[in-house]
Prior knowledge:
Blueprint: E1 5-10, H1 17-30, E2 35-39, H2 45-55, H3 63-87, E3 91-95, H4 98-108, H5 113-124, E4 131-136, H6 139-148, H7 161-177, E5 182-186, H8 191-202
Parallel strand pairs: 1-3, 1-4, 2-3, 4-5
Helix pairs in contact: 1-8, 2-3, 3-4, 3-5, 4-5, 4-7
Amino acid sequence: MRRGRLITIEGVDGAGKSTLVRALADEIARRGVAVTVLREPGGVQAAERIRELVSDPEATIGARAEALLYAAARAQLVDEALTPLLAAGGLVLLDRFVDSSLAYQGAGRGLGIEAVRAINEFAIGGIAPDRTLLLDVDPATARARSAARGAPADRLERGGDEFFQRIACAYRRLASAEPHRFRTIDAGRDPAAVAADALAAIEDLL
């Protein structure tokens, strides 16, 4: 049995990742292909508990501790869910993966992309995405979308404009460095147009 496929969705908060994941999952299932949807941090019980902690706006968490917490959640997701799913030949849609830590903690928090990459190489044990869809949108637009949801901002969403600009720039650099893996999609458009482009970008993996 061939290894399954891992497709990751990346972008700043408010880029439309969750909306896209739902649309892709529906279309893939409609074609009769079994698909598992997971999110980061989360997807399994221990990682979901870490998600609650890192999202808590009342929590005081230093940048290095934050990076390590995300890596710990990721390691558990890899061991408990991703590795068995991919070994069984499954197709996985994952809302965020290592690139989020490289952008948010490496660039956004100023820890350095390579330092954060090293932490995560240990965490993921060789698991790598087959395709990464980067939803590229102006951070101001993304933040306006997040605010329009009406939900209280979590700990990371409370970062300032410069924080999110650093993250957006880092994502673009990561995509430029790995054009064979990344597909950059203009996420400033209607969700249906974004979904159509995203589906075309993964067609060869279905």
